[in-house]
Structures are given as structure tokens and as C-alpha cells.
């Protein structure tokens, strides 16, 4: 059973670990990577003990499909003269 349910907004991004982290009672950090989240993983594990948490998040926020739906930007700027 999961130690706790934690929303992704309550976790911190750790640049060094390249993972979202949350304090573990043992003194270490629960960790989950963006790649894990993209794959639908919802379990963040502590590397120092056997505890884990369930991460609550919207998978669409981390999907590659979401990134590919950005509005298209014009490749060349062209001026338009209106009479």
C-alpha cells in the first residue's frame, strides 16, 4: 500500500536528479522522472527505503502528443499592405 497520495503540484523539480521529488520520512526523497510520467507511471519510490507514494497528475500534461499540438508559427514574416 502506498505511503501517501501526493499531487504533482506539491512535488519539486530537482534539476540534478532530473526528477520530481517529495520528502520521505526516512530523510531521503521520493523520486519520479518525466519519462516515467509520460509512460503513465504513478509510483514515486524512495531509493533509501521501501516506501513509495502515488503521484496524482494529468498524463496529458506530460504526453508527447500534447507538445506536438502547439500552434504553428509562420516560417517567414511577411508584411501586408492594406489600402
TrEMBL record:
GO terms for cellular component: cytosol. Residues 69-83 have a biased composition (Polar residues). One of its GO terms (biological process) is protein histidyl modification to diphthamide. It comes from the Eukaryota. SUPFAM superfamilies: CSL zinc finger. Pathway: Protein modification; peptidyl-diphthamide biosynthesis. Keywords: Iron, Metal-binding. One of its GO terms (molecular function) is metal ion binding. Residues 64-83 are annotated as: Disordered. Belongs to the DPH3 family. Residues 2-58 form the DPH-type MB domain. This is Diphthamide biosynthesis protein 3. The lineage of its organism: Eukaryota, Viridiplantae, Streptophyta, Embryophyta, Tracheophyta. InterPro entries: DPH3/4-like, DPH_MB_dom, DPH_MB_sf. It catalyses: [3Fe-4S](1+)-[protein] + Fe(2+)-[Dph3] = [3Fe-4S](0)-[protein] + Fe(3+)-[Dph3]; 2 [3Fe-4S](0)-[protein] + 2 Fe(2+)-[Dph3] + NADH = 2 [4Fe-4S](1+)-[protein] + 2 [Dph3] + NAD(+) + H(+).
Amino acid at each position: 500500500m502506498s505511503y501517501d497520495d501526493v499531487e504533482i503540484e506539491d512535488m519539486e523539480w530537482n534539476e540534478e536528479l532530473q526528477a520530481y521529488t517529495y520528502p520521505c520520512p526516512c530523510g531521503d526523497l521520493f523520486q519520479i522522472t518525466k519519462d516515467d510520467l509520460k509512460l503513465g507511471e504513478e509510483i514515486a519510490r524512495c531509493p533509501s527505503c521501501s516506501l513509495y507514494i502515488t503521484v496524482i497528475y494529468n498524463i496529458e500534461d506530460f504526453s508527447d502528443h500534447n507538445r506536438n499540438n502547439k500552434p504553428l508559427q509562420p516560417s517567414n514574416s511577411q508584411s501586408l499592405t492594406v489600402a
